Amino acid sequence: MKVGVLQLNAMVGDIDGNCAAIRQGMAEARAMGADLCLTPELAVTGYPPRDLLLYDRFVARARAAVDALARELEDDAPGGPPLLLGGVEPNPCTLGKPVFNAAFWCEGGAIRRTFRKTLLPTYDVFDEARYFEPAPAEHNACGEQANIIKHQGRTIAVTICEDAWNDKDYWETRVYPRDPLEEAAAHGPDLIVNLSASPLFLGKQRLREDMLGAVAHKYRVPLVYANQTGGNDDLIFDGRSCAFGPDGRLTGRAPGFAPAVAVFDLDAPRPGAIADDDFGREAETWRALVMGTRDYVRKSGFSSALIGLSGGIDSAVTAAVAAEALGPENVTGVLMPSPYSSQGSVDDSLALAANLGISTLTLPIAPIMDAFTRALAVPFAGLPEDTTEENIQSRIRGNLLMALSNKRGAMLLTTGNKSELAVGYCTIYGDMSGGFAVISDVDKTGVFALARWHNAHVREAIPEATITKPPSAELRPDQKDQDSLPPYDVLDAILALHIEHHRSARQIVEAGFDPTTVDRVLRLVRSAEFKRRQAAPGIKLTPRSFGTGWRMPLACRREI
Q: How large is the greatest C-alpha to C-alpha distance in the chain, in angstroms?
């Protein structure tokens, strides 16, 4: 049997566009000899549809699209291979949530069977129990086993994303009381398929392949996994759909970070079916940032972007990502030097722009700073200069950039990194202004590593001085980031333990860090919560990012 995987970049809410992409994918899979085809989870609506699912009209349109697509596929190729299609199904029962996360077996112009997702994740970025009713444990209304179907003499177990992630032997524990794969195994399946929309964090594909291979080996059957690709808001879907033999070995993998149609031959895996990939941290980071930026800008209706260029490492990396994602002709770098800006920073910004091929504007802010000084002279009389004046400079720049964004219809990309966002080393309504925060889940040490990797593997575009000089906001004479923060290698290590590994202050100190430094860093994290709540969305790269998965209260006494 040949199983075709339609690795789609679905746009959330674009039912017609997604169905058109599915029809095109089916045509390609048929031409490649597929006997059965799979889409990712919720391919009709795009994943995650979130509160669109609260609207009955949207759910009804999505469900009607499944019937229409089934008919159209039969019209396109009578007697063609069946399609397992991810979509939504209204719950006919008055009890429970009104919608099921479903997979529809489309064959012969109609829906032959419907499968429902059993395990509904409610951790990190997932909130599926808010919308969906889980598949019932009992048999369906026709007396059929809910997640089993026969095709071409094979018994196929159909699972949807999380349904394949609860194997107690692999995890040495069980998160949910049920295991759909264990239930299916009682019926002797010859094949397991999984329709998925599994968002990326760095290193996740290695985990997926290890876990899915272990499941295939445990049940001694082939397994085919279909994943979504593309960026939807803060989530990145890396694709990398794959297949495994009954011995658990990887037999096929689709390309990462791109739409694809892959056909996996279960009986005679072909050489070259495993697409080349680079699982290095910087390589994955770069590909995710480029795809996420491209999709967010374009899916939001924009075609061009603006970036404030400071001569620093963060704006340089952000500009490099934008130029790759949108094309250099669609990116403008804006220089806004102040009396404290060094000539070196201006020169580095211009050199970067020339290397990347992006256009630039230069808007000196000294006259505007003078206007603020005169306007605030009376209320500020007798008070010493402090961060207030520094923040005014940042907010002047933010206003100029937003004015350009409004006038040109270009999305403003913010340039702050995760380290700054964590401790509040950023100015709300200043450098935080913008529509998308490209590197907000990359810590400062990661930004430096990515810059070096980019120069070595993409193009040598980021000036060496930008990489080697001490980081500075240049808001006062001779300012350096380390005047206000611990060294970035220390800061980032503490932040990773606290944010991504949920370690308390005491546990971090026990790991060998200075108690005073730990206390200071964690106090900064707490006090910056209100800034993060108002920050632009960014791209999730780590298991715990400041986005939809971060749900800290604002007004609280956080003693951890």
A: 87
Q: How confident is the model at residue 9 (pLDDT cuts 50, 70, 90)?
A: very high
Q: Is 117 a catalytic residue?
A: yes
Name the catalytic one among 19, 37, 106, 161.
161
In angstroms, rounded to a whole number, what is the distance separating the alpha carbons of residues 187 and 190? 9
Confidence at residue 373, expressed as pLDDT on a 0 to 100 scale: 95
Tell me the torsion sign for CA atoms 124, 126, 127, 129: negative
Percent of the chain residues topping a pLDDT of 70: 98
Q: What angle do CA 108, 113, 119 make, to 5 degrees?
A: 145
Q: Over the chain, what is the mean pLDDT? A: 94
**DSSP bridge partners of 285:** none
Could you tell me the strand order of the sheet in which 2-7 lies? 110-116, 99-107, 83-90, 36-38, 2-7, 260-265
DSSP of 310-343: -SSHHHHHHHHHHHHHH-GGGEEEEE---TT--H
The pairing of strands 411-414 and 436-437 is parallel
- Say if residue 140's pLDDT is above 80: no
Domains assigned to the chain: 2-277 (3.60.110.10), 284-481+528-533 (3.40.50.620)
Q: Give the β-pairing of 99-107 and 110-116.
A: antiparallel
**Cα distance between residue 466 and residue 472, in whole Å:** 11
Element (H or E) spanning 494, and its range? Answer: helix 488-495
In the prediction, which pLDDT does 317 show? 98
Q: Report the candidate in 217, 219, 266, 212 with the shortest Cα–Cα distance to residue 241.
A: 212
DSSP 375-390: HTTTTTTTPPP-HHHH
User: End-to-end CA distance of the chain, in Å?
Assistant: 54
- The question of whether 106 is a catalytic residue gets the answer no
Cβ neighbourhood burial of 253 (10 Å; 0-12, 13-18, 19+): buried
Q: Per residue in 93-113, pLDDT tens?
A: 888 999 999 999 999 999 999
Active-site pick, 117, 444, 531, 540: 117
Q: Is it the case that residue 282 has pLDDT exceeding 90?
A: yes
Q: Which of 41, 209, 420, 474 is catalytic?
A: 41
- The helix or strand, by DSSP H or E, that contains position 6, with its residue range, turns out to be strand 2-7
Q: Which residues contact 409 (CB under 8 A, 6 or more apart)?
A: 302, 304
Residue 458's Cβ-count burial label (10 Å; 0-12, 13-18, 19+) is middle
41 belongs to the catalytic site: yes
Asked whether the beta carbons of 439 and 289 are under 8 A apart, the reply is yes
Is residue 357 scored above 70 in pLDDT?
yes
Weakest mean pLDDT among 38-42, 152-156, 312-316, 473-477: 473-477
